[in-house]
Amino acid sequence: MRLISIALAVAGSLVMLAGQTLPAQPAGLGGLPTFSAPATHHTQVKLVLSADSAKPGDTIYAGVDLKMDAGWHTYWKNSGDAGSPTTIKWQLPPGITAGDIQWPLPQKLPPIEVTTYGYEGETMLLVPLTIGTNFSAGQADIKATVGWLECMDVCIPANQDVEAKLEVGTETKPSAEAAAIQSWQARVPSAINLAGGIPYADSAWWEKSTNDNTRPLIIDMKQLGNIAASVPLDGADFFPDASDNFEVQPATEVIAAATSHIQLRKLVQKISGDWPKEISGVMVAGKGSPQGFTFKATISDNALDSSTAAMPAAGGTVASPAPTDGTPTLPLMLLYAFIGGLILNIMPCVLPVIALKILGFVSEAKSSPARVRALGGIYAIGVLFSFLVLAAVVIGVKAAGHEAGWGMQFGSPIFLVCLTTLVMLVALNLFGVFEVTLGGGALDKAGELASRHGPAGAFFNGVLATVLATPCTAPFLSIALGFAFAQSAPVILMVFLTVGLGLAAPYVLLSLNPVWLKFLPKPGAWMEKFKIAMGFPMLATVVWLFNVAGSSYGKNVLWLGVFLVIVAFAAWIFGEFVQRGQSKTVAAIVVLFLLAGGYAFALEKELDWRAPIAETEAAGSLKESADGIDWQRWSPEAVAAAQAAGKVVLVDFTADWCLTCQVNKKTSIEISSVRDKLKSLGAVALTGDYTHFPAAITTELQQFNRAGVPLVLVYPKNAGTPPLVLPEVLTPGTVLDALDRAAK
Amino acid sequence: MKKTLALFTALTLATSLFAVEIGKPAPDFTGTDINGKTVKLSDYKGKIVVIESYNSDCPFCHNQYASGAAQDLQKDLAAKGVVWLLVNSVSAKNFSHRTPEQAQKEWADLKINATAWIDDTSGTIGHLYEMKTTPHVFVIATDGTLVYDGAMDDRPQPFGDPHTAKNYVRAAVDDLLAGKPVEIPQTKPYGCAVHYAN
């Protein structure tokens, strides 16, 4: 029966279509002459107004109510892969103007390969009507032609004239439909509710560059603060606005969905022209009765990998509370960067360098103001130069498709060994074991502070201050850096240099006003003692760095200590016999011999300093607790062996610095249900530690198109079958489900 | 069900990256036309081929034929040696499905000037080419590379006269015949969803 009625409907409308010769209409369906055949439609249309009567100057709402028969649907403003949006063409008395259509949140309609956005059952499109202030009283006829495409198994285009009467007079009287209009208004996406006045930031960035026509885009809506939002943000999705030159594909991968943060991955397909620079649409949250929130952001290039971007410390593009304003407030971020840099001066990592600076100022206090100014400037240049290098490294790492982070160089044991050695030499220098001179011939000046605090010394202090500052973050700094890491190269450069300016500012100011230095004590013999005293904070820094290096080398870090002692001994011989002694040549040979021998023996042979522990540690269980998962160290061979033995394999690539990994482990992996499941399946659990970027894991990550961790894989028990790749943010269900599937 | 769908999306996403891509060889296929004849894309190598995802019950597609615009274009292009293949991927369960007999009648009634109407009830060719809508058209150059993928024209409406619109297929074929690169290689297809069997 149903089929026949549809057949009749289709036949009817097609006959009418075929019989008409219509001029081209630029405005879509709405511009057509009416043909009224309501009996064949599957959508009932009526026009309602929010008021029976209104005053000139009022704005009332018109609602175009569309009731679809069961199974039929009409479309949203972006109809998606197919379909066509409903149009309304108004015929209004002069003096009354209609605004844009406000569309209630639509549904995502199947099938998945041709996803459309539309409405089933009933919807009401809302349009504000403004009555001019000089509109003369009386009855106004509000008329419109509504055009739509209704689809089920077939699609039928239709249009219909609708009208309603409005009394314009001296009072505003709501109509019987006002409540219905209001309830539909509540379903129109709007700016997200502000919890406690804390705004949400909309941001979007390309996950990676591509030569392809499809590119993953990260869409991120984050509350700037930790106050619980008024809306549950589960079941997140994103409905894009319509676009001609690109298409946001319907599939959505949820990376994060918490009350204060939604992060989604969408694939964008480029149809023509350049990649889009801006993305807008509706962020959808809440299962059951979803709510929509308007979303708009400029797309930045090549931001951080999601694993670090998801960290709470990283700020987003700050949007003002105004819903449509998604512009990044770069000036505010630069201010944060400057303040952050300023505060860095009193963070523990930089303090030892401060001591050097104080010493420098004391010794220079009596110099000409011009020289003091020059040295202050050179210090600043040293700082800025270092930040320039850091920014270049960050930009380079990002361009290479890896993730970059503040202080990431501290993840490199090679860097740690070099820095530990350098800082120890600075300490020894302060103790007076040897002098730093430039140009070789300045030996007679050895011991004079001036030589150390000349231009080269000032520059070196600037570099050292920056290098030591990087593992520290300060208030304000994390927000500015979080912002910067997600931005384009020029912005990164700008923010980094501003942090540098903040770090250098106090000294530059002091050197510009040498008068203030008068408050410092006069130079004298005490300075030599003060200098030696300042060597101890440096020594403390060495201990800290040594300890950090310990996490890379384990017990073998002993050999780094041995190397440091050899270097220290060489430094003493250098100071005592090369710089101040008589038999310079012999001493110099001894120094070279010590350094070369120390390097070859302690660093190369014993420590194997370029191959940190992650790859050298013996295999064996890595259980975290007595009843924990029996983790084994990951290797491609271990995976192959377990699969060959017909076992399901769970692989977790993780890193100490990866917050998401730790959260995943706590909530969804190292939990009793997963432990039991692994036991009952006899599955093998392998873990790969990416803390120190071992090459084998980098290669493995690249195979799965990931720039970093987390990466969790579940290999089916049949040898050679490719693994299931789990999402970056896990739930216990995801893990259990994947294990079940792998066991089949 | 959901998982199957997700898997299916993953597959279609994967194929979308590799199967049909402008400038790459258009994937070959073999089908049966409504007269029972075997049609193989690679047999047309050396000719320009237009592939159109077709379902005349779809108002957008129907308007192209009701107005005669599609037939006129097919005739013009046939005179230039262009092959035009209709691919109907509508599921057998759908109201719009056509048996070969119904299709032959429709071919005659609408005076279709295409080379062949391929019965793709299984959806194999439709999925291979990632056909999203009816009409969704593809133009393949004489060397077998795909040079156009998208809408029929710049007028995504089920009414009015498509003769007045800028037809992307005509433009692409003209560019090819003039020995120029195709100026508009890709647009967003409009129309009704293809009613696939799965």
What is the secondary structure topology, with strand pairs?
The complex is a heterodimer of chains A (744) and B (198).
Chain A: H1 2-19, E1 43-49, E2 51-54, E3 59-68, E4 73-80, E5 87-91, E6 96-98, E7 107-109, E8 116-120, E9 122-131, E10 138-151, E11 155-168, E12 173-174, H2 178-185, E13 200-206, E14 214-223, E15 237-240, E16 246-258, E17 261-270, E18 278-285, E19 291-300, H3 306-309, H4 330-344, H5 351-364, H6 369-399, H7 413-431, H8 449-452, H9 455-469, H10 477-485, H11 489-512, H12 526-553, H13 557-579, H14 584-607, E20 631-633, H15 636-644, E21 649-654, H16 659-669, H17 672-681, E22 684-689, H18 695-703, E23 711-715, E24 724-725, H19 732-743
Helix pairs in contact in A: 4-10, 4-11, 5-9, 5-12, 6-9, 6-11, 7-12, 7-13, 10-11, 13-14, 17-19
Chain B: H1 2-18, E1 30-33, E2 38-40, E3 49-53, H2 59-66, H3 69-79, E4 83-88, H4 100-109, E5 116-119, H5 124-128, E6 133-134, E7 137-140, E8 146-150, H6 168-177, E9 192-193
Parallel strand pairs in B: 3-4, 4-5
Antiparallel strand pairs in B: 1-2, 1-5, 3-7, 6-9, 7-8
As a percent range, the share of helical residues of chain B equals: 25-40%
Helix content of chain A: 25-40%
Largest interface: A-B, 45 and 46 residues
The first-to-last residue Cα distance of chain A is 44 Å
CATH class of chain B: Alpha Beta
Work out the number of β strands of chain B.
Answer: 9
The total count of helices of chain A amounts to 19
Largest sheet of chain A: 7 strands, mixed
- List the total number of helices of chain B: 6
Counted beta strands of chain A: 24
Element string of chain B (H = helix, E = strand): HEEEHHEHEHEEEHE
Strand order in the sheet with the most strands of chain B: 2-1-5-4-3-7-8
Based on secondary structure, the structural category of chain A is alpha+beta
Mean pLDDT of chain B: 87
Total domains of chain A: 4
- Strand content of chain B is 15-25%
Taken from the alpha-carbon principal axes, the silhouette of chain B is globular
Total domains of chain B, how many? 1
Query: What is the global morphology of chain A?
Result: flat
Structural class of chain B: alpha+beta
